[in-house]
């Protein structure tokens, strides 16, 4: 497959992921649609291009690991896991229902979920532990952690930034879903400063990309493989709610209920994305 | 009598087991010399992770390591390994039921000089409230070693409370430690004293004193505070006139609370010896602190007599 074909394949897949996210949230159910949509292209590239994983053998020891540190956006991960076949797509609509494995935040009981997250700021440390475990066992896998740009106000993130650098965890790749919004406003409500400078000053390799440009995403993921002796941060500039016209760039859709009308509109918007891709 | 620090016993046994089992790893937050995780640091450096003075990341990194099949021991002083990292333990270890061992060193008042910030009087309480968590507080060097071995063999989250104090070695090497099993150290007819850690020794002293007055006490070592064997608790209080609990911990939420909960449908009087809803403070001598906070054999004697009035 040449690069153009690969990018086209992944862009189509990202549309499917967004459709799955909408299936999951449906009408009248509160869900983190904004952050799920902003992560959708990154998640697509990880599960359908970059990561070594096998839904038929989810425990295989040399699999790449993915930790969704901003666990509230798990709808995007459920969408990808269902698309891969870790569980049936029919399960998606049951998300958050009483007794369903698909909880409001990721739990390891769900096939394909590697770690529990939900209390923000812990995913990078989880990923670091997995990365160090891989090095101890001399198994060659990567650990990918998606962070939120609101989330990185958590102090534990910066403890993990230092520790990953100190322990030279070059099999740890963090991806910042920089959608510039958090629960109660834009990320201007609490300025975390120059993220790239902070990570690079702490000894990390940094790469900045458009987090909705599939070619840039796969190039960045490939480049991260070549980095030795230090962890990598991919800063992915994204749009909160990407693909859903009325939610794009709006913090108010961080965790929102879609009305029947909005749901139909969102489906139409994603359908339009599909025609854009295949044009 | 032969005395030994529990932290020395902890460090020695952890190193011994780590030599046998390559899955054992130790993490520390710049206190390895005190917690004795330094024994692994010095002999098996590739399986020791210095995580810097950053307990939250240490704790969650341990969770990540356990997800790759390692048996991580996350070490710090008890105040920090439980309090500083409470949310990390709750969300990242207890909830997913991961095989992480939290070691709380210098527990209770045993770091007497450093004062209230370093004296753990609430660690058992906050660990005990977490579903899936096992909580163990051993009473001598032998029991500490047996507990370390048992928690390596057990698959699940454990909080192990480790005193830095040198305590008399009471248990014999053939003592059969089992998680969740309490043991009757001395028998008696009048009062049952449930104790753990340092306070087992104080309870035994109290028992001797009370014998002079013709009072005999059972002394039960409850080193596993959770899971608590409720049937065993009931068995040991059957026929006695009252119960005293004794712990180097707040009377809120620790052993005293656990025993009281276990006996909540029994008509029996219970007195709790422990720290009475106060923080610690510095002292140049451990015994001065223990006396001030009522963690003495005399306090147990007084409570037993109170029950027999």
Task: Give an account of the 3D structure.
The complex is a heterodimer of chains A (279) and B (309). Chain A is globular. Chain A has eight helices and seven strands; from the N terminus they run H-H-E-H-H-E-H-E-E-E-H-E-H-E-H. Helices cover 42% and strands 12% of the residues of chain A. In chain A, helix 1 (3-25) packs across helix 3 and helix 2 packs parallel to helix 3. Chain A has 279 residues and is of the alpha/beta class. Chain B folds into two domains: 3-168, Rossmann fold; 183-308, Rossmann fold, CATH 3.40.50. Chain B has 13 helices and 14 strands. The two termini of chain B are 34 Å apart. Chain A binds chain B through residues 107-108, 114-119, 121-122, 125-134, 136-137, 155-156, 159-160, 162-163, 166-167, and chain B through 25, 46-47, 49-52, 54, 56-57, 59-70, 72, 87-88, 90-92, 95-96.
Report the end-to-end length of chain A measured between terminal Cα atoms: 19 Å
Strands ordered across the widest β-sheet of chain B: 3-2-4-5-7-6-12
The helix/strand class of chain A is: alpha/beta
Unreliable runs of chain B: none
Q: Count of DSSP E strands of chain B?
A: 14
Main interface: chain pair and counts: A-B, 30 and 30 residues
Helices and strands of chain A, in order, run as HHEHHEHEEEHEHEH
Which CATH-level-2 architecture of chain A?
3-Layer(aba) Sandwich
Q: What is the structural class of chain B?
A: alpha/beta
Query: How many discrete domains of chain B?
Result: 2
State the name of the first-level CATH class of the largest domain in chain B.
Answer: Alpha Beta
The named CATH superfamily of chain A = Thiamin diphosphate (ThDP)-binding fold, Pyr/PP domains
CATH homologous group name of the largest domain in chain B: Thiamin diphosphate (ThDP)-binding fold, Pyr/PP domains
The helix-strand sequence of chain B is EHEHHEHEHHEHEHEEEEHEEHEHEHH
- Which range best describes the helical content of chain A: under 10%, 10-25%, 25-40%, 40-55%, 55-70% or over 70%? 40-55%
If you compute it from the alpha carbons, what radius of gyration of chain B comes out, rounded to the nearest whole angstrom? 19 Å
Report the count of strand segments of chain A.
Answer: 7
Discrete helix count of chain B:
13
The biggest sheet of chain A, with number of strands, parallel, antiparallel or mixed sense and barrel status, is: 5 strands, parallel
Which residues of chain A sit in consecutive blocks of at least 5 with pLDDT less than 50?
none
Do you know the CATH topology of chain A?
Answer: Rossmann fold
